[in-house]
Amino acid sequence: MQLFDPQASSQLIPVLNLEESEVERQMTICNACRYCEGFCAVFPAMTRRLEFTQADIHYLANLCHNCGACLSACQYAAPHEFAVNVPKAMAKVRLNTYVEYVWPQPLGKLYQRNGLTLALASGGGLALFLCLTLMVMGNLFTAIPGGNFYSVFPHNTLALMFGAVFGFAVLALTIGVRRFWRNVSPVDAPLPLKTSAALEATANVAQLKYLDGGHGEGCNNDDDKFTLWRRRFHHFTFYGFMLCFAATAVATLYHFLLDWSAPYPIFSLPVMLGIFGGAGLLVGSAGLLWMNLRRNPEQGDENQKPMDRGFIALLLLVSSSGLALLALRETSALGLLLAIHLGLVMAFFLTMPYSKFAHGIFRGAALLKYSIEKRLPNPINAGSD
């Protein structure tokens, strides 16, 4: 009787690719050294493992915030023969996971290779389409009293268009993170979700805790000096986006529940949320683009830059066009600016599941897994008892 079939076993255990094998090699070295154990969540999570499966590697890669602190401190980094560079190795795997778990996959592969081109082309194409539509309607350069953009595009038309696009983005992101979670979490022993773990993970996401380098001084970017500006620009971007989302949500409640139609006064809640959110997005995305252009090639994966810059460029264009639309909404430029802004926003939501936005969702799931498993007994210690 054949008790073990090697071929069947190989079908159960995924074969590591080159990038994953490199992370496994480096984690094995780091697990023996453990000098960086206090730097971020990656290293405590690493110490709970003696071997690293593909699921472990995908989990650790998305747990890594690419702050670079471990590279600057590593005694086994190049020119040492071990050539340990955890940020770069993790970034290469992380880029692959975006494509592996995304839905549908062909769109993820397209964005991975041509992120900047695809983002700008989709935004420009949709904006041009809306401009041509308004040109045919005769509303492209028509001043409208009060800046009522619903006179340009009816409310129900916009709600249908953006509701469909936003629904697709949410569906695609949900499928992607569900695939990721099912792969990195044990099927035979589901992780017990506790309120304390969920609250801790939420706080870590909101604070961007692990962009402080583990010592509170920040990340490395273009040299070995630590800086907190990467964390600050991420905060501007994240909370700017959330304020813009809140502005849209409040305006929707005004329209449907209170029957208050736009345009709203400058000091109304939706407009003020939009102003502060747009300003935060503008500062954050401009800062992140500046830091990305100056980033040391050793601090991450060069192949990820098109995806990074495509996402940042869209955020920068969305925020700047939105603020320009608000400032000039009572002029003849209303139609043109509205078409450009709406085209860019629609492109942002269409590409959101395949852009760097998805990395935030996967990282949030990895942080949740970390918060859950740290509350469980260490399997290494349990095995030695």
UniProtKB/TrEMBL annotation:
The keyword Lyase does not apply. The chain crosses the membrane at residues 116-138, 158-177, 236-257, 269-290, 311-328, 334-354. Keywords: Membrane, Transmembrane, Transmembrane helix. It comes from the Bacteria. Gene3D superfamilies: Transmembrane di-heme cytochromes, Chain C. NCBIfam families: CitB, PRK15033.1. This is Tricarballylate utilization protein B. It comes from Pseudomonas fluorescens HK44. The lineage of its organism: Bacteria, Pseudomonadati, Pseudomonadota, Gammaproteobacteria, Pseudomonadales. The gene is tcuB.
